From TrEMBL:
PANTHER family: TRANSMEMBRANE PROTEIN 14, 15, TRANSMEMBRANE PROTEIN 14C-RELATED. The chain crosses the membrane at residues 20-43, 55-73, 79-98. Belongs to the TMEM14 family. Its main location: membrane. InterPro entries: TMEM14 (IPR005349), TMEM14_sf (IPR044890). The lineage of its organism: Eukaryota, Metazoa, Chordata, Craniata, Vertebrata. The keyword Membrane applies. This is Transmembrane protein 14C.
Amino acid sequence: MSVDWIGYGYAALVTSGGVIGYAKAGSVPSLAAGLLFGGLAGLGTYQQSQDPKNVWLSLIASGTLTCVMGMRFYNSRKFMPAGLIAGASLLMVGKLGLQLMEKPLQP
């Protein structure tokens, strides 16, 4: 079992983004979303570290953030924070998709 440092870094980025959004603008939805999706990404990464085939929770969390933050970036054209999180989430979706393709799922 190897530790997925990239996944844990992504979870920390999402969580810290929510905390920073709350600290700078007092945005409770940013804090809630950052803690929720950062926690889901961290839990998904932990599950993946235990079983490399179990990428679904991480894939759902990063895929949802890719869509939501991608739309926010498209509408606002502001890189921070929407563009950064959308880009990082898209990279995570790609990484997880490659992992699914490289290891065949066995029942």
